[in-house]
């Protein structure tokens, strides 16, 4: 498959899917968290595919790799914030485990894409 747009990238597609899942989970958080953990978690989740898109749109491999690094940082943020949500009992263990597994896979995909781009640079 030829890549014409960031929207063609599986890693971007998964990032968007996971951001939507995070929004579903945070809807169950207490309303008092709307500007706290729930907002932080949503922003970090949205940051992952957003940075993939921005990096791809920049047009340079160096920039794309840089923005993939930012996405990886956001993956770590989401994972941390999910674990905090679990610890304070806003989200159940099963949900966190499922999301963490998906975010680990997303991180692996991001690192593989980075390596591929670095090898061609």
From TrEMBL:
What Pfam families does UniProt report for this protein, alphabetically? 23S_rRNA_IVP
Q: What highest taxon heads this organism's lineage?
A: Bacteria
Cite the NCBIfam families for this sequence: four helix bundle protein, PRK12275.1-2
- PANTHER family on file: FOUR HELIX BUNDLE PROTEIN (PTHR38471)
Protein name in UniProt: Uncharacterized protein
Annotated organism of origin: Citrifermentans bremense
Task: Tell me the organism's taxonomic lineage.
Answer: Bacteria, Pseudomonadati, Thermodesulfobacteriota, Desulfuromonadia, Geobacterales
């Amino acid at each position: 498959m030829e890549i014409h747009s960031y929207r063609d990238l599986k890693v971007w597609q998964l990032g968007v899917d996971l951001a939507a899942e995070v929004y579903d989970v945070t809807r169950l958080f207490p309303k008092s968290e709307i500007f706290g953990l729930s907002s932080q978690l949503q922003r970090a989740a949205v940051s992952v595919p957003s940075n993939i898109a921005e990096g791809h749109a920049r047009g340079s491999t160096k920039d794309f790799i840089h923005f993939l690094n930012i996405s990886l940082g956001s993956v770590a943020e989401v994972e941390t914030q999910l674990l905090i949500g679990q610890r304070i009992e806003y989200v159940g263990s099963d949900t966190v485990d499922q999301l963490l597994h998906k975010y680990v896979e997303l991180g692996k995909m991001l690192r593989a894409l980075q390596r591929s781009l670095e090898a061609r640079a």
